[in-house]
Amino acid sequence: MNGAVYLDLDGTLLDPGGVLVPESLMTLAVVRDAGLRPVVLTGRSRWAAAAIARTLAIEDVVCELGAVVLVDGRLQLAAPEAVPFPRAPLLAALEDVPAQEHEPGTPRMSGLVLRSAMPADDLTDELHAAGFGGWCCVDNGPSHLPLDDGRPSRVVHVLPSGTDKATGVRMHLQMRDLLPGACAVVGDSTADIACHAVVPRTFVVRSEDDEALAEAARLGLHVTASRGAAGALEAVRTVVTGGRSVPGPLTPQG
To answer: Which GO terms describe its cellular component (predicted)?
Structure first.
């Protein structure tokens, strides 16, 4: 396989809430039938993402929001010098802001995941002011859970600076010796949309995330009519057949 389709999990390949539905399997079938490689692209931990990938017979995984890439059992880190990461000091630096750890106790390799009522850029400023200049916060869309005080929140990943899903996609392209033009990205968050800088054929699955929809409109990216896995299926069908949103069908290189 000399081309790939990078598929976000929650709200894209899986329906909201991480539910596997028939459209999930149909999406993978369309990708594989076109001779393309499906790749998991997710903020989930290395272990959770790998388990889901195994269930779906997917070999390659870009996880922890791009900080970790798994290919044929090989593991590559975006910032190996930051592993293990300073969990307790990072949390202490953010103890006075409206944010809390998302799913405490879940093992991760490369950083924290928070639910936050404060924008990611402002959280990054807080970290820098506390002396963590080599760390940044990356928004990954609305959380289905509010903060403990009831305020709505967004999922924010705390990662080594310069790390995001685009970083992970770039590492995977190099590991598999793939050309960006032979690949596509399908996702529903601003973190997925950032991959457009690496893989121009980035498709946005419709969701309730106004920030993602606004960014997609700003960049002129195709937004699906359907949501969830049905939206992912719509996107990959456009990828492999061509359509108004792309100049032609995506076919494997070589």
So the answer is: cytosol
